[in-house]
Amino acid sequence: MSRLARRATLALAALAAAAAAALPAAAQPFPSRTLTVIVPFAAGGPTDTVTRLVAESMGRELGQTIVVENAGGAGGTIGAQRVANAKPDGYTLLLHHIGMATTPTLYRRLAYDPVGGFETIGLVTEVPMTLVAKKDFPANTLAEAIAVIRRDQEKLNYANAGIGAASHLCGLLLMKAVDAPMTTVPFRGTGPAMQEVISGRIDLMCDQTTSTTEQIKSGAIKVFATTTPARLEALPEVPTSAEAGLPEFQVTVWHGLYAPKGTPAEITGRLSKALQVALADPKLVARFAELGTAPVAAAMATPEAHRKFWLADIAKWKPIIQGAGQYAD
Ligand code: MLT
């Protein structure tokens, strides 16, 4: 190439770069840079596990990296607040669970709007829970565990991830069903709480299969029951709560992906399409199955289906929480 031609090529490249930089953000194809998804619980827990699998697969589909950031504490409200207050440009997202349906009633004073502060992108999965204990807990069945809980309730401790966390709701259900309150120890997520159950400093915890399955299989912890109507393929030897004599002890944990309020519909739509592709990724489906869960159907991974489901769940939990007078403040 002649010097003149090279100079012309360089000038053209500089012009193109300047033109791209001058484009308003809205005119650039989305996404044109790294995205961040906030997990409102500690690393190593069930929400973190689900989010990392989804982020990896969605990032491939979007052609950008999705960074997962943990912002745990206060039952998931710290991380949710960060996203509600973020720029509504699609680059900061939230992956949260059933807590999005209980928080609006449980927390009467929040520094963000727990419903109006978000756009929905799509549901992700619904995860069963298991009642687990430290490995030398003096019981081998749910019936034996209930007898120990009733006898030693003042000495036993139960871990959760703060008010509004799935482990908190599940613990409330358990304590109500067996009529025996225990000392509750809150963590920033069940990731760190699980380490305390494994080490034997925490007696009991209710946690999602995405966090407990491998610990149960390796014998690091004991399990008494699943909180589902049917046995789980990933844990076929574990009885359901009904089989084990506690039919009212049932709860599953749905998860969804959100953006800050005001994020344009074209962007939430693009993210929803990428989520649907991610949820059909055979690698993700296989890993979810190993962890005792499954992605939702594509029709549920849309902004509209997610919003409808979320609002219905808020309405379902409202009278339950108000009736129990169990507020976070
Ligand atoms: C977590 O990721 O730590 C959990 O989802 C917390 C919980 O809700 O129990």
From TrEMBL:
Segments passing through the bilayer: none
Signal peptide: 1-27
Domain of life the protein comes from: Bacteria
Pfam families: TctC
Keyword Isomerase set for record: no
SUPFAM superfamilies: Periplasmic binding protein-like II
Keywords recorded for this protein, A-Z: Signal
Keyword presence, Signal: yes
Entry protein name: Tripartite tricarboxylate transporter substrate binding protein BugD
Entry's family note: Belongs to the UPF0065 (bug) family.
